[in-house]
Amino acid sequence: MQAILLMIHVALAIALVALILLQQGKGAEAGASFGGGASQTVFGSRGSSSFLATLTGVLAAAFFVTSLGLAYLASSQADSAPDVGIPDAEVIEQQKTVPTLDDSSNQQDNAAPALEEEGQ
């Protein structure tokens, strides 16, 4: 579920960037009034500004909804697995004070197989 929502979220983000780059800036309207041929456009005499603005709003709303959905899924997964992540400082300090095997016992364990091999 989360992977599908994440793929939709990325697709919406890419579509939003492309759609925003397609739109004309505010200064382009002044040049179009001097015979820019606005009546010959695919979207009619008003141009594509209202269509692109509406589509941008719809995609932005969908992007917002997928963002909220991903945040909800992430928080629900964090509640179900509290041991995931960086441990508290107290836990780290307790792990440092756990007694470890001293070097002499490790040397004895390592020396025993060597003695057995020499006898054979």
Automatic annotation (TrEMBL):
InterPro entries attached to this UniProt entry: SecG
Origin: domain of life: Bacteria
UniProt biased composition (Polar residues): 95-110
Keyword flag Phosphoprotein: no
Chief localisation class: membrane
Subcellular location: Cell membrane
Keyword check for Cell inner membrane: no
Membrane association type: Multi-pass membrane protein
Region of interest (Disordered), ranges: 95-120
Keywords: Cell membrane, Membrane, Protein transport, Translocation, Transmembrane, Transmembrane helix, Transport
Protein family membership: Belongs to the SecG family.
Name this polypeptide is given: Protein-export membrane protein SecG
Organism of derivation: Modicisalibacter zincidurans
